[in-house]
Amino acid sequence: MLSFELDLNCLAIYFIDVILPIPIQKTFTYSVTKEEADFLKTGMRVAVSFGKSKMYSALVLNIHQTAPTLYEAKEIHQILDESPIVTEKQLKHWQWISSYYMCSLGDVYRAAVPSAFLLESETIIYRNESFTDIDILTDEEYLIYEALQRQSQLTLHEIAEVLDRKKVLPIINRLIEKSVLYVKEEIYETYKPKLVKYVRLHKDYQSDESLQELLSKLSRAKKQRDVVLTFFQLKTEKKPIKAKTLSEKSGVSAQIIKALVDKEVFEFYHIQTDRVQFKGDENPLKNLNEYQVKALDEIEESFKEHDITLLHGVTSSGKTEVYTKFIKKVLETGQQVLFLLPEIALTTQIIKRLQNYFGNQISVFHSKYSVNERVEVWNNVLNNKVKAQIILGARSTIFLPFSNLGLIIVDEEHEVSYKQFEPSPRYNARDAAVVLGKLHKAKILLGSATPSIETKFNATQNKYGLVHLNRRHGNVQMPKIELIDIKQKRRKKEMVGHFSDRLIQLMNEVLEEKKQIILFQNRRGFSPIVECTTCGHSPQCPNCDVSLTYHKYNNQLKCHYCHYQRAMPNSCGACGNSTLDTKGFGTEQIELELKELFPNHNIGRMDSDTTKGKFGYQKIIESFESQEIDILVGTQMLSKGLDFNNVLLVGILSADTMLNYPDFRAHERAFQLMVQVSGRAGRSQKQGMVAIQTYNPYHQILQQVSTNSYGEMYAEQLQDRWQYHYPPYYRLIKITLKHRDYTKVNEGINWLARALQNVFFENVLGPTAPAVSRVRNQYIKNLMIKIPPKQSLAKTKEHLQKIKTTFEAVKEFRPIRFIVDIDAY
Questions:
Q1: Which of 75, 108, 364, 502 has its CA 20 to 30 A from that of 783?
Q2: Given a cut of 80, is residue 74 above it in pLDDT?
Q3: Is the pLDDT score of 713 beyond 90?
Q4: Helices 156-163 and 169-177: angle between axes, nearest 10 degrees
Q5: Separation of alpha carbons 685 and 639, rounded Å
Q6: DSSP label at 438?
Q7: pLDDT (tens digit, 9 = 90+) per residue, 21-68?
């Protein structure tokens, strides 16, 4: 009887459900052996074939013995991990993101893990050794055959290079039919650990006698003898000796050290090391002032009742110092801290400050890091290493495999950069961090000088705790804000280019004091529009419904949506006249004007054109901090939490472009941006100055900015939101359709509007075309669903999913891209 049971157990078939990194809603089931099932755990990766021949690295979700009913389960190709790379809490978080933001688990998987983990197959082509009849081959086919005689295998990419053409599959298919070659799909790993080469003495030379013998043997080889003597000098430090250090200190080439290894005097060995390391001493934290101490105590009290607390502190009130006190307390309990920042530019300054206090306990994770660097941070967090106790980063950091999270800080929580708009998953990192905190039973601290209306509303409704910090650090006064009416200045001819006489006067006064200036213009390039003054024609992007922006430094017209670019023409493309002129202005034009106005001062520019590359932000920020730059002009990346002690004046060159934007959050965003930029002025001793140039100085938002009246702005916006049914009272779901055929999109959106209106009635807005209604040759149409306070969000999404499924079942609508964006603001 016992042997019969054992036999049955051996015959039992095991299955795994896996997540594939593709935008398909469901998981897929594959078969595994009993041994594989015993070894596998949730969160490990396996290589599986999907479709005809494509291979993917899939993530194991669960292991079971229930066979799929609709298809026969394929076997897995191989197991890729020794232990899980994704934790169960992470998977719960992913499932929440997938459910809440109506996207597939595959989308979340692809967005969450570094691309080195998403191993995909590459088609490898091999020559059939038995083929000899080369006369039947065409010229192109013979080129491939000849290349495979020199190399045992080729990839599709290499064949495309051999033939100097993109489409090579038809030729390969013909060669397969002629039995010239065969193909295989092979999984390839992209992460390579960084190995540093070290040198040690061979075991034969450990005694004093053998060393004396060695030195006398090398008496004629002077350079080799020098290397050995240098080795012993370095050995006194009792640290492993790098091959590179030995080469530099002894002044010899690497070949001479290699010769000593060949003679078995030295041995090479390798140590795996992280590509990014933060070194620093652990210094005592700064003492807090009485207002910071009071805020700290209030936050601690608030955390007894609420898991989430909002710290509403004015600019330069020392919020970061309050954060560091909390971080220290959490680290003392042995837990990890996640510090979210809206902009990569901010990490440079914050790292320096935290390094000063917490030494090498810091890891940083963001998109400017290479794939290999991100894998190393991932593994350090997964293994809860000392160097991954404080993790700083932009929005994608919420996907890291935390095992013991105690505190999440979301700095500048109001920032729109926390929202992912494209591609899917279209999540908000602030809201996802709140859910992550709840999963880990961690505390969440949201900080801002200008909180978003939704967060402030939650705090006033007692969903979140609320703590105020109303004094600037060192009791420095808030900056004095002056509104400059440029309509009047233009009429009186008191403008020099885009600068009013008053702004130039203030700049001269500040530069005489040897202080620095920040100028803000939220548009990059030289000019957004090039126009012919004869016929009015303006060069347009061929792929998008938008004018091309002129970039003077390389004399090019560029599209900021699809990155199309072309040389600046000498004459108008419509009428042929050489009467081209520019309209509007960007950071590049301001930089050139400043060089003419202030020829004896250094001008810097900080926008996405000048911060390309890994250390782009760092170089500019360090130059400005060391006062190598006197005037820094930049876009919104200057507004977020940067701390410069020597800045006395901030100039906003065109406030109206922020206010006149077709969006229900335009006024809130304009207020936040202007107050944040203003907050860069006068942060250390003297009261700063802010000059705002505008055509409408009596606009209510500008008046509120000038008096720093967040309360007034909040009350006014809240009233408007209630009246016009917008968040925080109503929820929003935005639906976007995209396709290359305008008629198709139009028919699709009209069908969808009728279907949605049958269910949601007057709460459907649209259909409308956005301001830029064609991007990358895809026409765009939008619909908006408003969800009233008492309507169930889950039920709404259920109805929407049914309508979406019906829409995608209609043959004519199937090619249309259907995008759902929850909380699309």
A1: 108
A2: yes
A3: yes
A4: 100
A5: 20
A6: H
A7: 888 888 899 998 888 888 889 999 888 888 766 778 889 999 998 888
Positive/negative CA dihedral, 495, 499, 502, 504: negative
Mean pLDDT of all residues in 546-574: 87
pLDDT value of residue 227: 80
Task: Specify burial of residue 613 (Cβ count, 10 A radius: 0-12, 13-18, 19+).
Answer: exposed
Please report the domains of the chain, with CATH numbers, ordered by start residue: 14-117 (3.40.1440.60), 121-187 (1.10.10), 203-264 (no CATH), 290-459 (3.40.50.300), 480-522+601-720 (3.40.50.300), 527-584 (no CATH), 731-822 (3.30.70.600)
Please, is 206 exposed, middle or buried when counting C-beta atoms within 10 Å of its C-beta (0-12, 13-18, 19+)?
exposed
Asked whether the predicted pLDDT for residue 214 surpasses 80, the reply is no
Q: Which residues contact 465 (CB under 8 A, 6 or more apart)?
A: 299, 302, 303, 305, 306, 308, 309, 310, 459
Residue 6 pLDDT: 42
Residue type, 325: K
CA-to-CA distance for 750 and 767, rounded, in angstroms?
7
Mean pLDDT over all residues of the chain? Answer: 83
Please work out, in degrees rounded to the nearest 5, the angle formed at the alpha carbon of residue 387 by the alpha carbons of 382 and 388: 40
| 686 Rama class: left (phi>0) / alpha (psi -120 to 50) / beta | beta
- The number of CA neighbours under 13 Å toward the Cβ of 692 is 31
Side chain identity at 33, as an amino acid letter? T
74-75 vs 54-64, strand pairing mode: unpaired
Question: 662-675, pLDDT tens digit by residue?
Answer: 888 889 998 988 88
- pLDDT tens figures, 333-342: 989 999 998 8
Please report which residue ranges of 688-741 form alpha helices under DSSP H: 700-706, 710-724
Amino acid at residue number 443: K
Phi (first) and psi of residue 147, to 5 degrees: -65, -35
